[in-house]
Amino acid sequence: MNVLVTGDPGLIASGVIAELRRRGHVVSTEGAVIHIESTGDVRITRSTTDSLVIRTAAVYGPGDEVISPILKLVRTLPALPVIDDGDEEFRPIWFEDFAKAIVNALERTDLTDRTLEVAGNETTSINDLIRRVAELTERRVVKIPTPIKLTMHVPRNMLTGENALQLLGVEPTPLDRGLRILADSLPELLPDEGVGAMHHKHYHADITGSRHTAQSLMTLFRDRATEFIPLNFDAEPGTPNRLDRGATLTAHLPLRGNIQVRVECVEPMRVVLATIEGHPLAGTLQFSTEAIDGGVRFAIDLWARASNFFDLIGMNTLGRPLQDANWRVVVQNVIDASGGIANDGVQSQKETLDDEAAARVEERIRKIVQARKRAEDMEETWPQR
Questions:
Q1: For residue 329, what pLDDT is reported?
Q2: Positive or negative, the Cα torsion across 106, 111, 114, 116?
Q3: What is the pLDDT of residue 52?
């Protein structure tokens, strides 16, 4: 079936398009129409006489406007202000479940001229979500009363009619499981989303007498990266300790909270990681090795901007010296683990990129992230047997 997806191009659309492709439908400029309104309501039209509206209370997933921000706030702030409307109840649905409901409805012919309401099976609130996310991330949340009334956008309240998920053949994802998936699937924070100038920092050591080749040294680093980097990678339960493509690593950054990076590219002598929303930097980190005369070079390259104005201030004061010391320690730890020595020690270079150079870096990073997502989509659509 040819299907045209129109309207809001956000989270719901991405889920619908992925579900259509998984089932072999062609997403094109003509055919049956799935129109996604800004309210989240979806209208399915297969002909001038065949129309169906699916209405939802709240959809959550990577980049949503309610639950994803709560996750970032709990991770990164030492305290949260008391939310005025924090006890108002709603029933969120995981975005992939909503997408399945939409595509199931598209494939049926017995639902013409109806309005169906769908939602998750569990009732929650902003305060309940804060509690759940705090337990999930093992963060102690302190709530601070403020003299100014603070509110958050609370999704449309409870459904007015019957939940049509069962009619549409969808078993909803339990809320705690959805939150756990979300915790490792927030989107990357790319350099063009940051503020201030883009900086390139380079650290390397030329190692002689190592018992490793360039490739085996990178394998060693991938296997033990969380040992070499002097941050606490046990900040949240279930955090991986090996750099495999698609892995999301969570660490505790002193004075900042929990931060995340995602492995975007893995090659025999290169690994590229991108920062995740909530990180103080917007950019990528590259670890690489190469064979040189008489030994092996291990290098770290960081291309990044501050993620926001406040982190820009932090980086311009304490952040940069601490960051510099951290990456020097990493290089030295690799030297020690290699069994060799670096006669010239750890070398470093720093530069501020002009607009043209920054644009080239942004484009290269965007392609790396897109390539990882395409590869994962292909693996999900046609898994190896």
A1: 96
A2: negative
A3: 92
Cβ atoms within 10 Å, residue 80 = 17
Task: Give the pLDDT score at 344.
Answer: 95
Q: Give the model's pLDDT for residue 129.
A: 92
Mean pLDDT (10-residue bins), the chain, 385 residues: 85 91 88 88 85 89 89 81 79 94 92 89 90 86 68 65 90 94 88 92 96 96 94 82 92 81 96 92 96 95 90 74 91 96 96 95 93 80 53
Q: What is the DSSP string of 275-316?
A: EBTT-SEEEEEEEEEEEETTEEEEEEEEEEEESSHHHHHHII
CATH number, span 2-183: 3.40.50.720
Task: Establish whether domains 2-183 and 191-381 are of one fold.
Answer: no
pLDDT at 303 (0 to 100): 96
Say how far apart CA 168 and CA 87 lie, in whole Å: 30
Q: H-type helices in the chain, by residue range?
A: 11-22, 67-76, 95-106, 126-137, 175-183, 214-228, 309-314, 320-338, 355-381
* CATH code 3.40.50.2300 for 191-381: no
CB-CB neighbours of 317 under 10 Å: 10
Dump the DSSP string for 197-253.
EEEEEEEEEEEES-SS-HHHHHHHHHHHHHHHS-SBTTSSTT---S--TT-EEEEEE
* Alpha carbon 127 to chain centroid, angstroms: 23
- Predicted confidence at residue 267, as pLDDT, reads 97
Which residues does 300 contact at the CB level (< 8 Å), separation at least 6?
A: 201, 202, 203, 204, 285, 286, 287, 327, 330, 331
Q: 75 with 68: CB under 8 angstroms?
A: no
Per the listing, tokens 């990528």 go with: 284
* C-alpha to C-alpha distance for 208 and 298, rounded to whole angstroms: 11
C-alpha distances in Å from residue 385, one per residue of 1, 193, 194, 378, 381:
26, 39, 41, 13, 12
What phi and psi values does residue 319 have, to the nearest 5 degrees? -60, -50
Query: Domain segments of the chain: what residues?
Result: 2-183, 191-381
Between vectors from CA 55 to CA 53 and to CA 57, what angle results, nearest 5°? Answer: 175
As given in the structure block, the two tokens for residue 193 are 């989303």
Q: Tell me which amino acid residue 179 is.
A: L
What SS3 class is residue 87? Answer: coil
Amino acid, res. 376? E
User: What is the model's pLDDT at position 385?
Assistant: 45
